[in-house]
Specification:
The structure holds two protein chains of two kinds. Helices cover about 65% and strands about 0% of the residues of chain A. Chain A is mostly helical. Among the domains of chain A are: about 90 residues; about 70 residues. Chain A starts with a helix and ends with a helix. The N terminus of chain A is likely disordered. Chain B is mostly helical. Chain B folds into three domains: about 230 residues, CBS-domain (Roll); about 220 residues, Clc chloride channel (Orthogonal Bundle), CATH 1.10.3080; about 210 residues, Clc chloride channel. Chain B is about 55% helix and about 10% strand. The chains are: A mainly alpha, B mainly alpha. Chains A and B meet through helix 12, helix 13, strand 1 and helix 14 of A and strand 1, helix 3, helix 10, helix 11 and helix 20 of B. Chain B: Belongs to the chloride channel (TC 2.A.49) family. Chain B: Pfam families: CBS (PF00571), Voltage_CLC (PF00654). Chain B: InterPro entries: CBS_dom, CBS_dom_sf, CIC-7, Cl-channel/antiporter, Cl-channel_core, ClC. Chain B: Keywords: CBS domain, Chloride, Ion transport, Membrane, Repeat, Transmembrane, Transmembrane helix, Transport.
């Protein structure tokens, strides 16, 4: 919560100054703003060439809302923005088909890497060509902060999916652990496939070792915390196959001994209490009669007096 | 003890030495009193089975009343202004020490329980996993039972053979102490040690018990020990805090210790103060409250601080108490006004179940007192309970079909899979295969849907009977957590059922919220505490919003429960035959006057009394009195003696020990004058009269009691009504109240047992009988 607040605070500080400037600009004469019209087409072409649907219908309105050059986004930055858009789309396009069964880490780590790279470029404070940084203009010029929001959504997705555990540091390839797990998983699944047709007891018997190694491997990885959503999901599905579809869980077979032992234990206290009731000497209390001034305070007398 | 020439009904055997309490002289039974001539019918010994309508001779009053004799006045005169200020400072220092030590003990208990229980559950879990695969689960069951029994054996043997007073939660005993009853051995170091080890063993042994109740007792023992600056068990005297060696001061510190104990147990400093206030409120002042609050705060802070170090996060103060209810913060656990009637119904249910619990426990306790009184039998009983607890838990888990997927955050400490599908765990095992505290927390906080109703219903039923059976065993264990657990289980069940009735808006019936209310209702129904319990619950949940519903629930639980049966602690106090004085005298007792209440005739001493007489009176087994009015005979007249003071047995014993005889004082002028310090040094365990040797010559000497007696004892006229006497007793913490006639002659003496024997039963006012226990 706190960092977010702080961030907002900075944003307010940042946008405070430009807004003052804008106020000045608005007071310019209308003729000047008309002169600016020439500058607009170049901008609009850039907008049209982007993958977003053409904005012809609103084009006339956007004409009115153009600003003097020094406030506009530089070409360099708009290029960056453009690339960011493309990569973003590529990543999302990759993610959606990988949603079920979950393969978001395996299939999309490289596209994610490219998104990260371009965002790094946008948010770096190094000067690009023409001594401009795009960080302020692209990321924090307005309340919406669209680019930042889009990116942070992706980032939180990435964090929730724990993909970093399965991918090497610089998002180059899957880790060896992951690959090994995948191959073990494949072995198990092929085994399942092989015996799927016939009796499931056969399957339970024959695939037990493969499934067992997979389980052991999984719990090892769980302890080392090298799990990502892909592996977790794959394991869940395998377990469900094994337990629910093939019914290979352990059967409840020992009802008789368990009931026998526990009823024996339940029986012991009954014997104990009975024997102590019968054999133990009952504890008696010796009454003591205190000396009273008059012997009229016994219970009988109380009763009499009350009635 | 009453100052009465009692006609003791002796058994035919002369070797009865059952009457040995602390401070009570050992009776060697050499003198068999002559059967009373006046009343031959009563001379025969009468024996009855133990029941609740008895008062035991074992218990005595504490001397809360300040004895303003000449020694006291002298000492006060000698003491400088600075001295008083130092005393005040040392009171604060003691309270701080009490807090720190209580917090450390709580920390120790917590860590030990966690370690031992963790080890046990780990071993059993591995074993169960192994045998699920290859078969032979009954061996796991036996292993579980054996491990439980091993822990309980240690705890049970310690309690039953070394210190029986450490059994149970200790709250009834502390309640009695604060009420002004001296329970033998209740605040000794040995008791503390047995209590701490006992509670660790019984919780680790898997019994249906909690470690919170015993903390209150532990805090009280710490307070009593620290404030005295010495330990008689260790035979060490640190020569500190000597001024506080008397009952009045000690009681104040004990109430601080009890508060610190509550505070460490529940992370509820205010609740602790209010607990002490509720239980010992007849002696109270604002400054004391503030000091006690200080002790409570220090205690919870100490626990918090050391636990944070133990958990490897020093400075992260998030464990204020032994039980951590977790936080109820999210929006889904807010309540709406239309839920309050539902909560109140749950309160009524809690009251009913609490009354049922108490009634069952009452019968069980009577049976135990009558038949299971030998220590070895008590240990065997505890072992059986441990084994059955394991067997029942195992069977429940074994036959449960409630499988739940493992959550991402792993709330379950020891998830058992058993016959569930891979990646799922047995929901019954989270309730049974865990320490009770953790089970409570998971009932409060687990996601809706982590238990199915059948599991909860079965769990409530079994745990109810297990907890009821367990309370009163010879192990040290509290009843708070089991009550909370039972209540949380049926409360959660209520929440689930409500949610299923109204499928459209599942939010308002969050099961965790109903678990909390159920827990409060059940606890209130069993222990019947009001103010302090509300505050404890509110503080433990860390959510003031729940104040109102919890208060209402506790109120209704108490009203409903009181209709059927008393609170659990009151039942146990009664069954122990303790002369406990309640807030008020029983209603409809105004017609009883002091004349009827008092004991009479009274054994008095003259102001200058022969040593032989004193020794004879003190060593008379049949008149085991503690306070003796001192009378003065007007010379050369036939007028009866008039009251001029009151002297205690303990004082007389110290005087005899130091041989403060008139003749000796004359012969040995250089003899040191007796000071108040000499009396304090003998406190609290004054030697029995038999250990003091008085030669035949010395028996002829005289003793001047003027300097030592309390010259201004409280007296009442004989027509004072019982409620008036009662109020005086309760408010001033008296031990002896002399009944005098219009010319100041002693005609009787009222003691605690004379007052406590009246109580309002089913058929109006009833009288309890005195008995030897």
């Amino acid at each position: 919560m706190l960092p977010y607040n702080l961030y907002l605070f900075f944003v307010f500080v940042a946008i405070d100054v430009p807004s003052l400037k804008c106020g000045d600009v608005v007071h310019l004469s209308a003729s000047e703003s008309a002169d600016k019209l020439e500058a607009v087409p170049s901008l609009s072409t850039a907008a049209v060439s982007s993958p977003v649907p053409p904005v012809d219908t609103v084009f006339s309105f956007s004409l009115l809302s153009s600003f003097p050059e020094d406030l506009e986004v530089s070409d360099y930055c708009s290029d960056l923005l453009h690339i960011f858009g493309q990569r973003y789309v590529a990543y999302v396009n990759c993610l959606v088909p990988a949603a079920r069964p979950v393969k978001v880490c395996q299939s999309c780590y490289s596209t994610y890497g490219s998104v990260v790279e371009i965002y790094k470029n946008i948010s770096s404070d190094q000067m690009g060509p023409g001594n401009v940084t795009c960080r302020d203009s692209l990321l924090r010029s307005d309340r919406l902060m669209l680019v930042y929001q889009l990116y942070s959504n992706l980032e939180s997705l990435w964090e929730d999916s724990n993909c970093a555990q399965c991918v090497t540091g610089h998002l180059e390839s899957l880790t060896n652990d992951t690959l090994y797990f995948m191959s073990t998983l494949n072995q198990t699944l092929t085994c399942f496939e092989k015996y799927q047709q016939g009796n499931h007891t056969e399957l339970c018997k024959n695939c037990k070792s493969a499934y067992g190694t997979l389980n052991v491997l999984y719990s090892q990885m769980e302890q080392n915390s090298t799990l990502c959503i892909d592996i977790e999901d794959a394991m869940n599905m395998t377990r469900r196959l094994w337990s629910k579809n093939f019914n290979c869980s352990f059967p409840r077979e020992e009802n008789v001994p368990v009931i026998a032992v526990s009823s024996f234990m339940l029986f012991l206290p009954i014997i104990f209490y009975l024997s102590s009731f019968l054999h133990s000497e009952q504890k008696k209390r010796k009454l003591i009669h205190p000396r009273r001034a008059k012997s009229n305070t016994s219970l009988m007398n109380i009763q009499d007096k009350l009635s | 003890m009453a100052n009465i020439t009692k006609k003791v009904s002796w058994s035919s055997r002369g070797d009865d030495s059952a009457l040995t309490g602390e401070g009570t002289p050992l009776l060697n039974g050499t003198e068999i009193p002559k059967p009373s001539r006046q009343d031959p019918i009563r001379g025969r010994p009468k024996e009855i089975p133990h029941n609740e309508k008895l008062l035991s001779l074992k218990y005595e009053s504490l001397d809360y009343d300040n004895i303003e004799n000449q020694l006291f006045l002298e000492e006060e005169r000698r003491m400088s202004h600075m001295g008083f200020r130092c005393l005040e400072i040392s009171r604060w220092v003691i309270c701080g020490l009490i807090g720190i030590l209580t917090g450390l003990i709580a920390c120790f208990i917590d860590i030990m329980v966690e370690k031992l229980a963790g080890y046990k559950y780990q071993v059993i879990k591995e074993n169960i996993e192994k045998f699920t695969e290859v078969g032979g689960l009954s061996i796991s069951l036996i292993l579980w039972a054996v491990l439980n029994c091993a822990f309980v054996l240690v705890g049970g043997v310690m309690v039953a053979f070394f210190e029986p007073i450490a059994a149970g939660s200790g709250i009834p005993q502390i309640k009695c102490y604060l009420n002004g009853v001296k329970i033998p051995r209740v605040v000794r170091l040995k008791t503390l040690v047995v209590k701490v080890i006992g509670v660790i063993c019984s919780v680790a042994g898997g019994l249906a018990v909690g470690k919170e109740g015993p903390m209150i007792h532990s805090g009280a023992v710490v307070a009593a020990g620290v404030s005295q600056g010495r330990s008689t068990s260790l035979k060490r005297d640190f020569k500190m805090f000597e001024y506080f060696r008397r009952d009045t001061e000690k009681r104040d510190f004990v109430s601080a210790g009890a508060a610190a104990g509550v505070s460490a147990a529940f992370g509820a400093p205010v609740g602790g103060v209010l607990f002490s206030l509720e239980e010992g409120a007849s002696f109270w002042n604002q400054m004391l409250t503030w000091r006690i609050f200080f002790a409570s705060m220090i205690s919870t802070f100490t626990l918090n601080f050391f636990l944070s170090i133990y958990h490897g996060k020093p400075g992260d103060l998030s464990n204020p108490g032994l039980i951590n209810f977790g936080r109820f913060e999210s929006d889904s656990v807010a309540y709406y006004y239309y839920e309050i009637p539902l909560f109140m119904c749950m309160g009524a249910l809690g009251g009913l179940l609490g009354a049922l619990f108490n009634s069952l426990n009452y019968w069980l306790t009577i049976f135990r007192i009558r038949y299971v009184h030998r220590p070895c039998l008590q240990v065997i009983e505890a072992l059986l309970v441990a084994a059955v607890t394991a067997a029942v838990s195992f069977t429940m888990i074994y036959f449960s079909n409630d499988c739940q997927p493992l959550g991402p955050e792993h709330n379950e400490e020891y998830p058992l899979q058993l016959f569930c599908a891979d990646g799922e765990y047995n929901a019954m095992a989270t309730a049974f295969f865990n320490t009770p505290e953790r089970s409570v927390r998971s009932l409060f906080h687990n996601q809706p849907g982590s238990y199915n109703p059948l599991t909860l219903g079965l769990f409530t039923l079994t745990y109810f009977f297990l907890a009821c059976w367990t309370y009163g065993l010879a192990v040290s264990a509290g009843v708070f957590i089991p009550s909370l657990l039972i209540g949380a289980a049926w409360g959660r069940l209520c929440g689930i059922l409500l949610a299923s009735f109204t499928p459209t808006s599942p939010i308002w019936a969050d099961p965790g919220k109903y678990a909390l209310i159920g827990a409060a209702a059940q606890l209130g129904g069993i222990v019947r505490m009001t103010l302090s319990l509300t505050v404890i619950m509110v503080e433990a949940t860390g959510n003031v919003t729940y104040g109102l519903p919890i208060m209402l629930v506790l109120m209704i639980a108490k009203i409903v429960g009181d209709y059927f049966q008393e609170g659990l602690y009151d039942i146990h106090i009664k069954l122990q035959s303790v002369p406990f004085l309640h807030w008020e005298a029983p209603a409809t007792s105004h017609w009883l006057t002091a004349r009827e209440v008092m004991s009479s005739p009274v054994t008095c001493f003259n102001r200058i009394e022969k040593v032989g007489t004193i020794v004879d009176v003190l060593s008379n087994t049949s008149t085991n009195h503690n306070g003796f009015p001192v009378v003065v005979q007007v010379l050369d007249s036939d007028e009866p003696a008039k009251l001029c003071g009151l002297i205690l047995r303990s004082q007389l014993i110290v005087l005899l020990k130091h041989k403060v005889f008139v003749e000796l004082a004359r012969s040995r002028l250089s003899q040191r004058k007796l000071q108040l310090k000499d009396f304090r040094d003998a406190y609290p365990r004054f030697p029995p009269i038999q250990s003091i040797h008085v030669s035949q010559d010395e028996r002829e000497c005289m003793m001047d009691l003027t300097e030592f007696m309390n010259p201004t004892p409280y007296t009442v006229p004989q027509d004072t009504s019982l409620p008036r006497v009662f109020k005086l007793f309760r408010a001033l913490g008296l031990r002896h109240l002399v009944v005098a006639d219009d010319v100041n002659r002693v005609i009787g003496l009222v003691t605690r047992k004379d007052l406590a024997r009246y109580h309002l039963g089913k058929h109006g006012l009833e009288e309890l009988q005195l008995a030897q226990t």
